[in-house]
Every structure is written in structure tokens, then in C-alpha cells.
Write a structure and sequence with these properties.
By secondary structure, this protein is an alpha+beta fold. It has two helices and six strands, in the order ββββαββα. It is elongated, with a radius of gyration of 29 Å. The structure holds zinc ion.
Length: 151
């Protein structure tokens, strides 16, 4: 008996079942007993990612989509945790010292935030105005030049 792959019209569950050609059109969903559609005979394709379990319908590549979505969601979740922790750290710092603003916050090489004294902040701004900003301006100008060339 060949192995066939089905997907439920109602809940989207995908499953495999051994059955005869005659029986394959009479299959019902394992979970909700609703009618299913025949996807393909399982051994007609060598490429066969995870097939059991619920998956979104009508995308054509739904099981792959589902896996990618899961990976993207997990990755985003981890990144948001980092962003939230950074914001929390900065707020904690600012709450420690009244009068301090975001301009007083410095990121150390260890990835920690510290408050700069006003003196240090002034020095930092000088470096920013005289070195960092011109660097970005030059870089930006270059990019604009490239863009107009391409146009
Ligand atoms: Zn179902």
C-alpha cells in the first residue's frame, strides 16, 4: 500500500497514511475528522521536510514557511530581550542621578553603560564634532556620489 500525504481543509493538520488508491479519497482528518485533501504520494518526492503537525494553509510551501517563521520569531525574541535590557540599564542609570540626560550615557568596551561627568561629556562631544561627524559626513557624501552615478 502506498504512503500518501494529506492536509485537513478545516484545521490544516498534515499527516501521512498508508492506504489503497480507492481509500485515499475517503480519508478524514486524524484530529477533527473533517475532509482532507491529498497532497502527494510521499515517496514521489525526495525532498520531504517535517510533515506532521499543524501548519498554515494555502502558501504552497507551508511547512517550510512555518519552520522559517519559527526561526525568525525566536531570533526576534532574543534581539528584543537584548534591546529591552539595554533600555532598562539606561533608565536605571538616569534615575540614579537627577539632571543626567541620555547625552551623559557612555557605552564602555565591555558593553556596559556608565554616566559621564559633564567634563568628560564635553571632551566626548569635541571628539564627536571634530572626528566622528566628519567621518560620517564624508561617508554619506561618497554614498550619494555612487548613487547619482548609478542613476
Ligand atoms: Zn482537521
Amino acid at each position: 500500500m502506498p504512503l500518501y500525504k494529506f492536509q485537513c481543509h478545516s484545521c490544516g493538520l498534515r499527516f501521512k497514511n498508508f492506504c489503497s488508491k480507492e481509500q485515499r479519497n475517503l480519508q478524514k482528518c486524524k484530529k477533527c475528522k473533517e475532509p482532507v485533501k491529498l497532497l502527494m504520494s510521499s515517496n514521489s518526492f525526495g525532498f520531504d521536510p517535517k510533515t506532521e503537525g499543524p501548519s498554515p494553509q494555502n502558501t504552497g510551501v507551508s511547512s517550510l514557511d512555518h519552520d522559517f517563521n519559527e526561526i525568525i520569531a525566536k531570533d526576534s525574541f532574543e534581539r528584543w530581550k537584548v534591546i529591552n535590557k539595554r533600555n532598562l540599564d539606561k533608565h536605571k542609570l538616569l534615575n540614579q542621578e537627577s539632571g543626567a540626560s541620555g547625552q551623559n550615557i557612555q557605552l564602555t568596551v565591555d558593553g556596559e553603560y556608565v554616566l559621564m561627568s559633564d567634563e568628560k561629556k564635553e571632551g566626548f562631544e569635541k571628539v564627536k564634532d571634530n572626528f566622528i561627524q566628519p567621518f560620517f559626513d564624508a561617508h554619506y557624501e561618497e554614498m550619494e556620489k555612487k548613487k547619482t552615478k548609478e542613476d
